[in-house]
Inverse folding.
DNA sequence: TCATATGTTGCGGG
DNA sequence: GCCCGCAACATATG
């Protein structure tokens, strides 16, 4: 789940439950998700309070009164939750932050691709990980500047977190569909108008997704997301979801681009 | 059993 | 250095 809209939704949740709260204990149920050793984490967290939250791309930050920053990356299956007593801990809780109030905040991650680590600051982390500007902040001009000389497929470039941070596999498909651009267009062939379309589509898709708290089934019918196999919003048995939202008789195609499952409408997005 | 999976990293080879 | 394909990571689900 966790692309930018999910992570932003998690951030808002964490801000609600953790802001100005003290951390009484750190409970590590599976150290696999720790990218900073447990003792170092504990020293930075326990006895300190959360003074703010932030987000860059798919990374969520908890600003700490110790001056450091806790970085949460959710991998492919990460989630957050809150509970009060151990029997209510969500399944696959890997780490729990026990707050002074008694509430416990869970870092949940079945596949354990997520990571929790300490950083000196957001800017330091951004530089260390070579993260580009957040996808909500990136301008059409910045995109054009970074992509105009690249002679490779557009989609993998949009997934590259150093170009812009936060776009994941389904969002890129949705963005390209909304912008009516084929994922295998070579980046350097895009016109200025197309870079503007791309930027507009990024804004539309991200703002829509955040507005619906990343709940796919609530997205407008004009969204391609409903054609993805794992979406359950289609009426069972109708296969209606396999068709383009704009062309009721045109089937959405599934291919692989850069090794990633890719959905396109052949009419809306003619090949470059 | 096999295929698939929303992310990231690192390897080998061109 | 750039770029691609591919595997690995660890696990759940259909």
């Amino acid at each position: 789940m966790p692309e930018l809209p999910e992570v932003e939704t998690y951030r808002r949740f964490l801000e609600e439950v953790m802001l100005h709260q003290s951390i009484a204990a750190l409970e590590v149920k599976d150290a696999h998700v720790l990218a900073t050793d447990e003792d170092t984490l504990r020293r930075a967290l326990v006895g300190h309070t959360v003074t703010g939250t932030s987000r860059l791309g798919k990374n969520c930050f908890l600003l700490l009164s110790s001056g450091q920053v806790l970085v949460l990356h959710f991998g492919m299956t990460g989630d957050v939750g809150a509970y009060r007593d151990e029997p209510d801990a969500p399944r696959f809780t890997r780490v729990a932050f026990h707050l002074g109030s008694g509430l416990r905040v869970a870092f949940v991650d079945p596949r354990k691709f997520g990571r929790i680590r300490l950083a000196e600051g957001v800017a330091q982390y951004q530089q260390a990980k070579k993260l580009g500007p957040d996808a909500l902040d990136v301008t059409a001009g910045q995109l054009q500047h970074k992509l105009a000389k690249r002679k490779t497929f557009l989609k993998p470039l949009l997934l590259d977190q150093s170009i812009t941070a936060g776009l994941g596999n389904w969002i890129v498909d949705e963005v390209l569909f909304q912008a009516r651009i084929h994922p295998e267009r070579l980046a350097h062939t895009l016109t200025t108008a197309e870079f503007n379309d791309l930027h507009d589509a990024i804004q539309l898709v991200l703002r829509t997704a955040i507005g619906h708290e990343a709940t796919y089934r609530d997205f407008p019918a004009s969204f391609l997301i409903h054609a993805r196999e794992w979406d359950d919003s289609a009426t069972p048995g109708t296969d209606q979801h396999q068709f383009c939202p704009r062309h009721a008789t045109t089937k959405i195609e599934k291919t692989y681009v850069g090794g990633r499952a890719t959905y396109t409408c052949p009419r809306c997005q003619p090949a470059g």
Observations:
- Chain A has a mean pLDDT of 91.
- The CA atoms of residues 98 and 104 of chain A lie 4 Å apart.
- Residues 192-211 of chain A form the longest helix (20 residues).
- Helices of chain A lie at 4-18, 38-45, 122-128, 140-147, 154-159, 169-179, 192-211.
